[in-house]
Amino acid sequence: MKIAVIGSGKLGQRHLDAWSKVKGIEIVGVIARNQERLNKVANKYGTKAFSSIEELVVNSEVDVIDICTPTHTHAALVVEAANHKKHVICEKPLALNSGEAEDIIKVCEENKVQLFVAQTLRFFPEYVDARNQVKNGAIGNPGVIRMSRGVPHPAADSWYSDESKSGGLFVDLGVHDLDWLLWTFGDVERVMAKRVKRSSEDGNLEYGFINLKMADGTIAHVELSWAEPKFKASFELTGDKGMITYNYDDSYPLAVQFRSEDYVQIPRTILEKDPYQRQLEHFVKCISGEEKQIVTASDALNVIRVAEAALQSAEEGQPVTLGKGGK
Q1: What is the value of pTM for the model shown?
Q2: Do 127 and 52 share a domain, yes or no?
Q3: pLDDT grade, residue 271 (50/70/90)?
Q4: Separation of alpha carbons 47 and 58, rounded Å
């Protein structure tokens, strides 16, 4: 299978690293605007450099186009790739808003190409294992879920800092944990959110809090921050029979505690598998018909709708009620 990657930045190179480990794959090209960096990256991975999708498809055979570019460019790039009848992998979030996402999905369906959205948490072993524990009844009936994720604030000149390009904290960072919650607990009924945005006096602060009532009655709290000195992520999943905890910084990051006082810790060595490689291997197997999609286009649309509801709630100071599928 022949693959091309759009984007020569950090995420594009992370995908290229992962692709280089996937069996049966040929990386036929990299597309980017920064010519100097593009040439360096193409040389690093032993592939060709292209300036556009059009140039790629005219000069090279390609089956899948993997989009690792800023969020505001996703819609146009996915549509162009789909119109060339290429399967598409797109980094999360699929689009800046649900309207764009709906248009993208429609074009992919019309062109009969598969669309994969890289909601990578679904491939991180600790998050997969925690979901399996919940589904298998390890903690009984879930009650309260707490999730936290924080990263250093994007540079002032970064596209992340421009909400019209990144979607802001809830859409860009929040879709990680929101998607995992939807995958694990189902639809969201009600959203209440609050955020503190950076000001001209303090250019290094943005914090958000999202409270969700899931359709199954579970209450989830998601804390998000663009104000951390380094990356952090954690969760506590509490039910009437036990608790599952995770902390990225711990040497034993994932633990399961039962009401009987039994306590199981899972060492980091067991969890250290490349989720990006696992994700891309899954996408390849879906295209070849060996597996069904873990992340559907509808899932990618749904999580954007929930993030939009959180934004609406934060702006209006009122809870927002959602129907099935985030509508």
Answers
A1: 0.93
A2: no
A3: very low
A4: 16
